[in-house]
Amino acid sequence: MPEPTSLKQLRDVGRSEILLSIARDPSSDRVVVGASDAKLYECDTAAEKLEWVPFEGEGHTSYVQGVVWSRGVIVSGGYDGRLVWWDAKTRSPIRNVEAHGKWIRKLALSPDGSTLASVADDMLVKLWDIESGELKRTLAGHEPITPHHYPSMLYAAAWSPDGRWLASADKTGRAIVWNPETGDIHREMTAAGLYTWDPKQRRHSIGGPRSLAFSNDGTQLAIGGIGHIGNVDHLDGPARVELFRWESAEPVRVFEDTQMKGLVEQIVFAPDDQWFLTAGGDHGGFLTIYETASGKVLKQEKAHQHVHAVAVNPAIDRLAIAHHGRLSVWTL
Prior knowledge:
Blueprint: E1 8-14, E2 19-24, E3 30-35, E4 40-44, E5 53-54, E6 64-70, E7 73-78, E8 82-87, E9 93-98, E10 104-109, E11 115-120, E12 124-129, E13 135-140, E14 154-159, E15 166-170, E16 174-179, E17 184-190, E18 195-198, E19 204-207, E20 211-214, E21 220-226, E22 238-245, E23 250-261, E24 263-269, E25 275-281, E26 285-291, E27 297-303, E28 307-312, E29 318-323, E30 326-331
Antiparallel strand pairs: 1-30, 2-3, 3-4, 4-5, 6-7, 7-8, 8-9, 10-11, 11-12, 12-13, 14-15, 15-16, 16-17, 18-19, 20-21, 21-22, 22-23, 24-25, 25-26, 26-27, 28-29, 29-30
């Protein structure tokens, strides 16, 4: 079992790009990273020297916000609204699909590796067959306009460990748990503390859930983002996670950190659910591990600039982290 208090950085390498998304080869320590230059790069995090191999061929034209690796293919999603399938061995494109009408924000792979979920600012959740690229289902239920009459955004998605349920969450804090087989809404809840509206100075909203994670026993759903923001032009709010017993939509606990502020971009539960790791930041980055039952901070480390995404091995004891301008490798 990984020990949360042993969290430490092993190595890192600087990059000129913003590294926005990351996925791990299911069978090794190789990772693929999506970047702000619209490209993907592969890196072996176990190698003595971290070297970058770019993907070649027609891919994206804007930020690569999501990437998954399964069954011999890599799929990436970008702000251009496109999904691109790549051959994992040759790093060349095999399929390029106009998937969404607006920015793709996140990709989530089902536990069995067969189905890809994409979420975008057209407020749709789409399910794709990972091997054929076939669109299996479109889930529509998130409102396109916020209660303050501004466009909403759909930031996050996550599968339950048994693959029976899929969660998505939008800018207003509304989370939906879907039945992906039928397309029906199974449960709804709202993490209202993750949404800030400034009615006076800027007439502008900020925040929204940026990360979702089911506990490994399948009973709880963690929704991560940022708490109340005093100045909506900056990420000066506390890092915040709201935990629910999702079947009853019952709030369990709020985890909030005013020491290391900013967005919670990713949540990873320990195998036994006794603790969970959060990663994110404002201009600086953070890694914070909370005890699930008490809310106690078990370990906290500063990270180089903003953390955008984390890829973990099956044992949850080795982390590859995509930062604003850096890739780092950590161990537990």
